[in-house]
Amino acid sequence: MNLKSISDCEDQRIQKFINYKLPNHFKKIGWIGFVLSFVILIATKFFDGDYSILVDILKRLLLVFLLIVIMSKEKVEDEMIKSIRSQAFSFAFVGAVAYTLLQPVINVIVASIFKPEKAIFNDLGDFQILWFMMMIYLVVFIKLKKRA
Amino acid sequence: MKNTLKVERAINNFTQEELAKKIGVSRQTINSIETNRYVPSTLLALKLSKLFNKPVNEFFSLEEGD
Fold it and tell me: Which residue of B has its CA nearest to A146?
């Protein structure tokens, strides 16, 4: 095997990895898991007790199920869907970076107006950023798909 | 870029769904191409050309400013 064919083979492997998508039926599994985790997460607010570990697990499960939805193929995964997907990914990426940079500043400004004693600069947590990014992706993707 | 895909489809008596199935895309993709909301790849254009038995530039053409 010469160097060119090794590099071609490597390239194909990378392409296959980058373009990998779960089969379409995973989308349903993802949404069901997402709704269940969300409902249980909301339910913990209405019952007394220490649910901090459960809440942490549910938050991570929410992100995993959202990722499954995002990673699943559409019924017909054609080139227009790929183009919409990449548009939604880039929008979500830029949105998440802007949100991560601006939201803490906005929080401080709003707090300094209404509760100056609580106006402390806090970075956003990983859950908040990832949740925002994935929700933006899904909203943009669904919106663009409906427009098509 | 403008196209006469709708006309070609009518000549060949295909519905959007039928044409979509023949070239392996969704009906929405055909609709988006017809309404100029999506510019297809060369691969898809060539598949259409083969199906209609016509050169690509007979149903896809550049507009001023393209």
Answer: B28
